[in-house]
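Annex B. Sample input.
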Amino acid sequence: MEVTDSDSINIRSVIEHQLAAFKKDDAQGAFTFASPAIQAQFGTPENFIQMVKTSYPAVYRPRSVFFEKITTVQRNITQPVLLLAPDGVPLRALYFMEKQPNDIWRINGCFLVSLEGK
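Annex B, continued. Sample output.
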């Protein structure tokens, strides 16, 4: 799938809005940016935000955020984002993005990759 400039802007906006919702502890707001599959997996906004708090502190409360160039990972449109975790550890978050039938982008997973040793 070809990613247009408009797609890139929209993908970044979705991630930025979800990060802003996490910063405000807005579980419902953050949940709206997750894909239907992610929403089904966690069931409620509260379950979702609790998982992020516990398993993804760098996503929940990043000290800094830097967007890299969109790429494809295992046939998934992927937005790499450099994050500085609350403890000062740099990480790369790989956001798997999914375009919905209404052309709205949603986050369909996030994987953290260590940058240590690079």
